Amino acid sequence: MRTMENRLHVLHPARCAAKMIVVAVSLALMTGGCRKEEKAMIPHSPVVEVVSVAEKDVPVYLEWVGALDGSVNAVIRPQVTGYLTRQNYREGDMVSKGQTLFEIDPRTFQAAVAQAQASLDQAKGALALQKANATTASADLARVKPLAEKNAVSKKDLDDAVGRDLGATASVEAARAGVAAAVANLDKAKLDLSFTQITSPVDGIAGIAKTQLGNLVSPSMQEELTSVSTVDPIKVFVNISEREYLLHRESKDFNENMLLQLILSDGSVYPDEGKLVLSDRQIDPTTGTLKVGALFPNK
Questions:
Q1: Is residue 116 in a domain?
Q2: pLDDT tens-digit profile of 103-153?
Q3: Greatest CA separation for the chain
């Protein structure tokens, strides 16, 4: 056992030396690696940008939510009573001023025009008759007057002649008034006939028709036939708070010369700039805001 232990003792120091050499080499490698990492981790000097400070004016932007509307919104209603027979436009299309949008059955109104024309002709005939009677009465009076001066006729005959002459003159004036009334009735009948062609009063986009062909329409109906909106220029309404209004009302830039920019719902910027054109007369007591309007070109 001793011999073996000695061997072990003999052999053991050699093994320990080998291990120590290995450990020393490992430590040397580790020490060398740590030094390289320390060198690699040395931070670089930071790059700092330097900007010169300058005092200048910068624009101040105010943003509001707006609602688009036509600059003119014409409500189209019938002006005579009748049955709707035709729609002459396509809903959503551009229409011109004076363009026919709807037609009402014109036959009743054509008959009224013919009747009014006949009444006018009759009144003109009556006027001609009264003028003839007036001429006769005037001639009779002219014959009676010299005879009355010579007492060749009685005073009653003279008075009768004068009365007939005055009556004939009055009848002529009444007949003239009858003609004037007949002319007015004819003009009214023609106007009503023209109202069977329902036209657009402005250039713009025609809306959806709110009645059907064959319906009886009249001026007293509650719902309009359609509407036409002028969209060039287009109007934008915004509601600004009372605080903003009081804050900026004294500013010389917050006026009709202030340029406005319109940002659409998709985030794009409308190419043309607008201007303030109107404001409401009072603050809305329910919302505490003032309604103002701007116009933008829309060609």
A1: yes
A2: 999 999 999 999 999 999 999 999 999 999 999 999 988 888 888 888 888
A3: 203
- Segment 212-238, tens digit of pLDDT: 999 999 999 999 999 999 999 999 999
Cα–Cα distance, 229 to 207 (Å, whole number): 8
Gap between the Cα atoms of 121 and 129, Å rounded: 12
Containing structural domain, residue 147: 106-195
H/E element, 112: helix 107-149
Interatomic CA distance for residues 65 and 75, integer angstroms:
27
Domain membership of residue 139 (yes or no) is yes
Residue 240 lies in a domain: no
d(CA 149, CA 110): 59
The CA distance from 91 to 255, in Å, is 38
Task: Give the other-Cβ count within 10 Å of 68's Cβ.
Answer: 13
* Residue 81 belongs to some domain of the structure: no
What is the b/e burial string over 14-51, where b = at least 16 CB atoms within 10 angstroms of the residue's CB?
Answer: eeeeeeeeeeeeeeeeeeeeeeeeeeeeeeeeeeeeee
How do strand 216-217 and strand 82-87 relate by DSSP bridges? Answer: antiparallel
Q: Which helix (H) or strand (E) holds 217?
A: strand 216-217
* Residue labelled with tokens 């003009």: 187
Tracing tokens 């201007």 back to the chain, one arrives at 275
**Residue 143 vs residues 8, 140, 149, 169, 204: alpha-carbon distances, Å:** 186, 5, 11, 17, 72
Whole-model pTM over 0.85:
no
Closest CA to 101 of 189, 187, 213: 213
